[in-house]
Amino acid sequence: MAPQKDWHQADVIAALRKKGTNMSALSRSAGLSSSTLANVLSRPWPKGEWIVAKALNMHPAEIWPSRYFDDSGILLDRKARAEKGSRVESIPHFIPT
């Protein structure tokens, strides 16, 4: 089974325009800077993916299947994947005395 390809950035933008909105307006309506949501076009960002997908009345996996499924079509556990690939080391919490 060939893996599905992610939508092209221009296709995401065009689909939003067909719905009567754009990335900037959608970003501002979500309480973000007007350019913040554009990050979702080039890198994984679950919150942003859901904002765009909801505006298009679909699941983010339909737009970005590579972010949700492996090459064999099995659904990825994105939280585990993020933790595995994370370079952030554990930082002890500062508790004021």
TrEMBL record:
The lineage of its organism: Bacteria, Pseudomonadati, Pseudomonadota, Gammaproteobacteria, Enterobacterales. Residues 6-79 form the Ner winged helix-turn-helix DNA-binding domain. This is Transcriptional regulator. SUPFAM superfamilies: lambda repressor-like DNA-binding domains. Belongs to the ner transcriptional regulatory family. InterPro entries: Lambda_DNA-bd_dom_sf, Ner_HTH_dom. GO terms for molecular function: DNA binding. It comes from the Bacteria. It holds the Pfam family HTH_35. Coiled coil: none annotated. Keywords: DNA-binding, Transcription, Transcription regulation. Gene3D superfamilies: lambda repressor-like DNA-binding domains.
